Amino acid sequence: MTSDESMLQVTRHGPEGHVVEVALNRPQAMNAISTAFAEQITAVTAELSADPSARAVVLTSTHERAFCVGADLKERNNFTDQQMTEQRLITQLAYTGVLNLPMPAIAVVEGFALGGGFEIALSCDLIVAGEEATVGLPEVSVGVIPGGGGTQLLTRRVGWSRAASMIFTARRLTAAQGHQLGVLDEVVPAGTAREHGLDLASTIAGNSPVGVRNAKRAMRFGSDVDLATGLQIEDSGWRATALSADRQEGIAAFVEKRAPRWPGK
Fold first, then answer.
1. Which residues are within 8 A (CB) of 258 and not within 5 positions of it... i.e. 6 or more apart?
2. At what angle do helices 209-222 and 245-256 cross, to 10 degrees?
3. Which of 25, 29, 188, 263 suits 235 as a labelling partner, its CA being 20 to 30 A distant?
4. What is the mean pLDDT of the chain?
5. pLDDT per residue as tens digits for the range 75-114
6. pLDDT in tens, 166-217
7. Hey, what domains does the chain have and what are their CATH numbers?
8. In degrees rounded to 5, what are phi and psi of residue 189?
9. Could you give the C-alpha distances from 154 to 29, 66, 173, in angstroms and in order?
10. InterPro entries annotated for this entry (predicted)?
């Protein structure tokens, strides 16, 4: 999806294109999430989920001052209750599409990431932010609640009380505050977050794709179960990886003192 009509710009990085950058590209609305925008996110994440050559995904923005400011409230202004409900089903698919990417996903935040925009970032595994970024979930200040996973993902990321403070007050956090609270994983000089995000993705993409995907799956599905069940999930991932061609190649490369050529199967 690289046409002028696209609200997403997809770019492959690296000699084999294993790092995929997905840039939010609706600058006239500071990447506010309209119905059409949500549909494009769903389509692109579905394509990437089915692509075994994609080893890491980096979500960025073409707008210098915003990652994404959340839902398109101008579009919603005259919605009926039925239209709100219908759009809800569409936007849920978009957030779920990001959350369920089988490979690691990194959000790169420069400027504002608010409401649904911050929920897109929370749906990723890691968040790298420029030091001038501003994040928050202000939904209760406009008569709704975070509905893109925010109440669940933020609570799992930072704990009940910190998430409650952010969501109930609708307050915004600076990058420094977000990093201190554990909302953001890494804060870097303004304007360099994309570079740092792509470097991080490149490091991830250099590792076994089978191993990384199975590690993510074990972490995701094992995080909200009891320890014994979580260890069973981990064991399943270990077996799937240890019996793969990637394990054979990884050991051979180590013994031969060379870079691995991952089969990825």
1. none
2. 120
3. 263
4. 96
5. 999 999 999 999 999 999 999 999 999 999 999 999 999 9
6. 999 999 999 999 999 999 999 999 999 999 999 999 999 999 999 999 999 9
7. 8-205 (3.90.226.10), 209-256 (1.10.12)
8. -55, 145
9. 25, 20, 13
10. ClpP/crotonase-like_dom_sf (IPR029045), Enoyl-CoA_hyd/isom_CS (IPR018376), Enoyl-CoA_hydra/iso (IPR001753), Enoyl-CoA_hydra_C (IPR014748)
Cα gap 104→48, rounded to integer Å: 11
DSSP secondary structure letter of residue 91: H
Instruction: Give all strands (DSSP E) within 62-104, no chain letters.
Output: 66-68
- Residue tagged active-site, from 16, 75, 110, 139: 139
* Residue pLDDT, tens place only, 121-149: 999 999 999 999 999 999 999 999 999 99
Beta bridge partners of 68: 113
Q: Where does residue 1 rank: exposed (0-12), middle (13-18), buried (19+ CB within 10 A)?
A: middle
Q: Clarify whether 139 is annotated catalytic.
A: yes
